[in-house]
Each structure stands twice: as structure tokens, then as C-alpha cells.
Amino acid sequence: MIPAAFEYVRADSVDAALSALTEYGDEAKLLAGGHSLLPLMKLRLAAPSVLVDVGRLDDLRYINDAGDYISIGALTRHRDLETSSLLASAAPLLAHAAGHVGDPQVRHRGTIGGSLAHADPASDLPAVALAMGATIVATGPNGTREIAASEFYTGFLESALAPDELLTEIRIPKLDTQGWSFQKFNRRAQDWAIVGVATVRANGSTGVGLVNMGSTPLLASAVMDAVKSGANAADAAALANEGTEAQSDINASSEYREHLARVLVRRSLEESGLS
Amino acid sequence: MKITVTVNGVERSGDVEPRTLLVHFLRDELDLTGTNIGCDTSSCGACTIHVEGQSVKSCTMLAAQADGLELTTIEGLANGDILHPMQRCFQENHGLQCGYCTPGMVMAAVSLLDENPNPSETDVRIGLEGNLCRCTGYHNIVKSVLACAAESNGASK
């Protein structure tokens, strides 16, 4: 399978990437690791006329302790997240989940910025970003702005990024983590999650992100509210499908996905230490 | 567009369309047909090569993205007639049936041991989750990788 023809522009700096986005507008797509976009292009489900390759922007490949938060450059690869000692201690949920994206070959190429910006509800890391209350930094012609992960996802494969903006950094708050859990239910090892759940309990609150339970990555708000009000894991998990719009597809009916969400949220809350 | 890559230690250039996939560049332009195309959807791993020393599925990378980078394909593992230890372990342990997945399996296995020189059987099975063998010959593939790891560890002690 060969993608439809496109023009290829390699950006050697953030400024060059932004100039290309300004020049080509809606016609352009950003290419990072390519492990979400290229499969879509090969299936001709996406056919951008210009690809702006930001994959060589090594300045955006870092994991740093920034005081109150961990700053992660958008071009940081899943393998870097998986093996980071800083993340292992400061954000173990993210390091663990990154180690469950795709397979080793995918993790050698795929990037956190690409995964978050692609906005696929079936991806693992957006649910983690939601659960942890991450902040996404977008850089555009007029400078940078911060977007809360909870405000970032606007529709199927759509995010709050403007066409002339580049996702440059992800900020993960340093949480006093009491417990965390990542549940990924799939039929085969390397598959996308049929349903996934990312939970972190920290600083007196509980964040629960859902994978593949609607057209966007979702927060399980009803579950989080119930836990906050003192509900136990079983009672809170019973609300896991509230506010979701799970799709039916070849892997699962929407009813089955709702069932999985309730089961996996309960496991996730219990593994995080909630009784 | 013109690209230049270093494949198996040799600098090679070519003129490609931006949409040319790396696996097609290797096979059709450079005549390195050891890298197979299986599923063409980044599921099966038959097209696994090393990019800058790490396993990558070459069906899910543009040739343009590889410009200036160092690549290793299955043809680059052996030293003349002397097989790479992983190739020899696959041979000695009969780590193949039809052989179609083998180049990708070997390349993924070499990358796996680079990252984890002393894997358990479970580590090997999980580490090779991106490579499918449709003969279902996994048992001897895992045995081959474990044998190679044991041999390398023995040699370094």
C-alpha cells in the first residue's frame, strides 16, 4: 500500500516547522514518528498534500524535572518514556503505559507529542495525560500557549491545536502518587485497547482516563466525582460508562465496551489502592 | 528527491518520491531483498530493520525519513561467510519453518538483546510481540533467542 502523493518538507527547527504550517495551512500535516499518520495514509484514509517532517527536531526530545512538573519534549519517543528513571519515580503511570504502546518497533519511532496530537480515542497516552492532569504546550506564530489535557480533545482525531500550531511540550504535574494503574484489554499483544483505563490517585484526588470509550479520549468524570464523595471502588466503577459514547466495531459492541469499562475501572481503582 | 543513507556500512544514494516507503527503497532500489514485506500494516514485523541501531518496521517509515541515517538490514549482520550469532542460533535451534518471518525476527531479536542482554523466556515472548510467525513456530524462535543470549553472556563472563 502506497500513500497518495504529497510534498515533503523537512523542518530543521521549530521556526521552520511553523513557517511551513503558515505557508501551507490546512493542506499540511505534521509528521513526527509517523506511526499513527503513515498507516492512515497508506490506507488512503488521510491524504495530506504536504507533510512537514518534524522528526529531526532533537531539541524537542527531552524529559526534564522543571520543579513543579516534569517537562517532556514532544518528540520524545515511547521507548524514552518507558526507560526514563525520572518518569519511573515521578510519573510511573506514564512510563508504564508508554511501555504498552504497540510493540518495541513502534515504540522506537512513535512520539508522545505525535500520539497526543493525533487525538485517537484508542491511543493509550491521551488517557494517561487526562488522568494525570497534564498540560499541553502549543507553539504558534504568536508564541506558546498552555492547554489543559481536559480541554485538548475536541472530536474524533481533532484537538484544540490550531492549523498553524505545533505541540512542543507536555507538562506532567509532580503528584504525590498514592497509587496508579493502567488496564489495557485487547485480544492480541500488540493491538489497540478494546477498552483501556488509566488511573492515578494522588494529592487527595483520583484521575481516571478512558481509552476507546467515545469519539475522543475521555475522563471518567462520574467515577472521579463518586470517589471524591467517598464511594468505594465497586460503587464508583458502576458509573464508568456514564457520559461515554462507546462505538461498536469488529472487536466489540458498545454494550460490551461499557461492561469492560465498568470491570476495568474497578480493577484499576482497586489496583490503585482504593478499597 | 535525492536521499543518502548508510546501509550495512555502505553509503547508498537514490532518487525517490516522497511517498516511497523505506522497505520499497531497500528492496526495489538497493536490491536488498532480504527484508520481506508481510502485512504492510506495521503488524507483522517481517520488514523489521535497524535504524540507528534500533528495530523499526520499514513499511511504516518513509525513505525520506531515513535520509542521512544509518540502517542495518539482514544482509548486514553476517561477517562474510560467518553468520551473526543470532543467525547461527536460529539455524542451530531450527528457529524457522517457512522462513518468511525470519529476517524480521532476527533483526528484532538482535535489537531485543541489545536492550536486554539477559532476558527471561517471558521477556523474549513479549519483546517479540511485534513479529508474527504464521507457521506458529514461536517455540523454537524463543529457544533460539534464549540460546543466543546465554551464549553471549557465557562469552562475556
Automatic annotation (TrEMBL), chain A:
In its UniProt record, a GO molecular function of this protein is: oxidoreductase activity
| Pfam families linked | CO_deh_flav_C (PF03450), FAD_binding_5 (PF00941)
Record domain FAD-binding PCMH-type: where: 1-177
Swiss-Prot/TrEMBL keywords: FAD, Flavoprotein, Oxidoreductase
PANTHER family to which the protein is assigned, alphabetical: XANTHINE DEHYDROGENASE SUBUNIT C-RELATED
Q: What is this protein called?
A: Unannotated protein
UniProtKB/TrEMBL annotation, chain B:
Asked if the record carries the keyword Metal-binding, the reply is: yes
Q: Where is the 2Fe-2S ferredoxin-type domain?
A: 1-77
Q: Name one Pfam family in it.
A: Fer2
Q: Sorted alphabetically, which keywords does the UniProt record give?
A: 2Fe-2S, Iron, Iron-sulfur, Metal-binding, Oxidoreductase
Q: Which SUPFAM superfamilies match?
A: 2Fe-2S ferredoxin-like, CO dehydrogenase ISP C-domain like
Entry-linked InterPro entries: 2Fe-2S-bd (IPR002888), 2Fe-2S-bd_dom_sf (IPR036884), 2Fe-2S_ferredoxin-like_sf (IPR036010), 2Fe-2S_ferredoxin-type (IPR001041), Beta-grasp_dom_sf (IPR012675), Diverse_Oxidoreductases (IPR051452)
Q: Which GO terms describe its molecular function?
A: 2 iron, 2 sulfur cluster binding; metal ion binding; oxidoreductase activity
Is Metal-binding a UniProt keyword of this protein?
Answer: yes
- PANTHER family of this UniProt entry? OXIDOREDUCTASE WITH IRON-SULFUR SUBUNIT
* Record-given protein name: Unannotated protein
Q: Could you tell me which species this protein originates from?
A: freshwater metagenome
